[in-house]
Amino acid sequence: MEKILVTTDQSANSKAAIRFAIALAKQRKAQLTVLHVYHLLKPFKWTEQQFAAYTEEFCQKTTSELTAFVAKIYHELKEPDMDYQLVLVSNMDVVEGIITYASQQGYAYICISTRGAGAVRKLFGTHTAKLISSSPVPVISVPRGYRLTPVKEVLYAADMTDYEVELKKVADFARPLHATVSMVHISYPYELLWDKAVAEDTLRKKANYDINLLTPPRDLVNALMEDLELIIKKRKPSLLVLFTHQTRSLFDKLFLPSNAETYSFHGKIPMLTYKKEHQ
């Protein structure tokens, strides 16, 4: 059975991801887990027994609070069956805790809310950006202000490297949702234009799914993400899919952030990111 993980810190910002994960798990008939990563510091004067008792009390209290927190979200969605499991994981690094648990337990997707970031936080990274740049498990980042709507169109932004492998993954995500898949490749002036009908027929056969091909021209005045955002604004897809490189130098990560990380700061729709196979 497919498993979906959603993270929460009990903040209002995390509600968007939980709502999305609940709907996604229901549509995909998947098992849903709500994960909270915490870290407690042991006071120097405490004995191991004292700290163990405090940890147990903390976990019981947090479990009770999280249960009420999630129950309220289910109630707001008018979902009578609260079909999920709640897990608390201790790790001093939140992102490491999420990735370790998701990887070891075989989760298909990680859902997390994103709330944007100022200049300093962008430089050093949010939890969402860090997950995108390091998680082997696909990450779905959901904007905090996102209003839950059915996933009807999935927009896959392709750079045409490994697109056959990537397209199959996108189709596998879209299929249980009965969503359409639009593959967009922003073409440069020197690129040869494809015959749309022939190309779409080939793509459908390779992906075993209906694919709509978009090849808008690249506006060299804009950054690539600006061109993509214009397409998103025009088409209004339900979800954006990007495949991201994770093996970049520290300099690249600080001064040349990936398109996926950049979009996670200010995107208006959920974004699903996969690790690129060949980096």
From TrEMBL:
<feature type="domain" description="UspA">
    <location>
        <begin position="2"/>
        <end position="143"/>
    </location>
</feature>
<dbReference type="Pfam" id="PF00582">
    <property type="entry name" value="Usp"/>
</dbReference>
<protein>
    <submittedName>
        <fullName>Universal stress protein</fullName>
    </submittedName>
</protein>
<dbReference type="InterPro" id="IPR006016">
    <property type="entry name" value="UspA"/>
</dbReference>
<comment type="similarity">
    <text>Belongs to the universal stress protein A family.</text>
</comment>
